[in-house]
């Protein structure tokens, strides 16, 4: 592995990411056009209809051109394994970004229908371009909005009780716990559903982690995977994989 691949955070691309991070919670983008550039790169470099090549091409763009804040190749393997174990018919992702996570979900679960919630309309368009190029646009629906908007996005999603087999959290880390609770309040997770949470180590989701720790063995059964932040090997990260054990105790207990 080359030094560039091992230490991408030393590249100018990563420094631009750090500078643009203040925009992410409000715009969902870094602010330098890298997301649209990733879609252009996929459309010109990846084989149409080849989901494996599209995923590999996004990874190549993130390593060789501009760092991306999707789950990435290393942690993506953990997501793949969780998806295969859940074998979902219906999956929900919070945080579409450029559509990479949804690609990995539909690849690992060929019969799944995936819904992805994204704050940024621009990111949603990037993701739709990439999904179309990969040939999976008929299996993934992007809903522009946020779970914390007072119920509007939840109402648009409109799942039935127990319909969700898989939930992937990869959006605003401060919203992980509140958004999970909103979904629990709707009763959408079936007993045995799998919830995967990225970036619990960096930038961190301490309230979510504390909640899962408190309810270990009662409401949830959680495994913490020690891994690295996306597209580098020095910054440690955590991915939490949690099995939903049912509706006991009340999801409103635990840290606020």
Automatic annotation (TrEMBL):
GO terms for biological process: methylation. It holds the Pfam family Methyltransf_3. Keywords: Methyltransferase, S-adenosyl-L-methionine, Transferase. Gene3D superfamilies: Vaccinia Virus protein VP39. Coiled coil: none annotated. GO terms for molecular function: O-methyltransferase activity. This is O-methyltransferase.
